Amino acid sequence: MRILFTGGGTGGHFYPIIAVAEKVNLIAEKEKLLEVKLFYMSNTPYDNESLYQQGLEFVSVPSGKLRNYFSIKNFFDIFKICFGVIIAIFKMFAIYPDVVFAKGGYASFPALFAARLLRIPVMVHESDSIPGRVTKWAGKFAKKVAVSFEQAGEYFPAEKTAWIGQPIRGILQKVAHEGAFEYLKLDSQVPVILVLGGSQGAKIINDVILEALPDLLNRYQIIHQVGAANMEEINVLNSVALKNHPYVARYKPFAFLNSLAMRMAAGAASIVVSRAGSTIFEIATWGLPSIVIPLSNSHGDHQKYNAYNYARAGACIVIEESNLTSHLLTSEIDRLISDKEKMAELSKNAKAFSKPDAAEHIAKEIIGLALEHEK
């Protein structure tokens, strides 16, 4: 049995693939399925260690990106896409998988085009409330479509679409309470704010947090994932903003939180400040109250729809980027932390929103399609 995964560009595309691959391997071992081979086709491996851990063989295929705004890069990327499709067809034919699972994103287009041409069964998964262009297109010929938000199902044929939820890696399903404060060198008696700007950070959120830090650190501890590209700037600005501050040790900036650090951070956190990408589903699984700040220029405004769909479930507070100031963010954090009933309500609703078995459900569907194709 050969299963090919495709997607890429961000952690929101990549890590759900790892979560599903993890479950495929567990099911294959439990059901004693022989010779299961997994492949990952994209323009970059994104995280070689995660691929290795799940036995995914990386298949490199170039791809271009068509932006929603005018850019000369769009012209050159058309040729990259065409070249990527040709390479994908040859490599897909050489592998000839029994099924292709796609998470969308521009990097998945060559693999999906090749799969359609070679009549290989396809299953797609959409993480956002508003599907991306590649997923919308692939949904027309895919055998099955899974969505994380119920509202996204409206964009695909009802007879083959299911609201399954977001696949989340097993290691992130449970937070690590024990030892979290010691691991992160935090005081267990002071509330902790976990700030997540996505896998690459978020400059606007970083700037507002830095502006608010001198005030926030008087009452809270801050764990801040700033993004690798922003770490040097944050350290410089932080040294100025917190010079001679009595609680400077309460601020913990990280370029990136690996799986262990993320579990520890979630275990210590009282509340999360986050973007409205796939991180929402991790927060929901952890059952943590959150303040969600959607990216204002996301494709199709999907982050805004994600945020308000999550808020309608009673699981978060939304602050739009256009309204975001250090004063507003600080006041919302103060208001929530001081309202134990509201915190408990948000936590309960977040847990109810999560679908912890999503990766397993998807893995079973993929294996089912593969077995049908083998016959």
Secondary-structure element order, N to C? EHEHEHEHEHEEHHEHEHEHEHEHEHHH
- Report helical residue fraction: 40-55%
Biggest sheet: strand arrangement: 3-2-1-4-5-6-7
Instruction: Indicate the mean pLDDT.
Output: 92
Unreliable stretches: none
Major beta sheet summary: 7 strands, parallel
Strand percentage lies at: 5-15%
Helix-and-strand structural type: alpha/beta
CATH class of the largest domain: Alpha Beta
Morphology: globular
CATH topology of the largest domain: Rossmann fold
The CATH architecture category of the largest domain equals 3-Layer(aba) Sandwich
- The gyration radius over C-alpha positions equals 21 Å
Total of helices: 15
The tally of strands reads: 13
Span between termini: 11 Å
Q: CATH superfamily name of the largest domain? A: Glycogen Phosphorylase B
Number of domains: 2
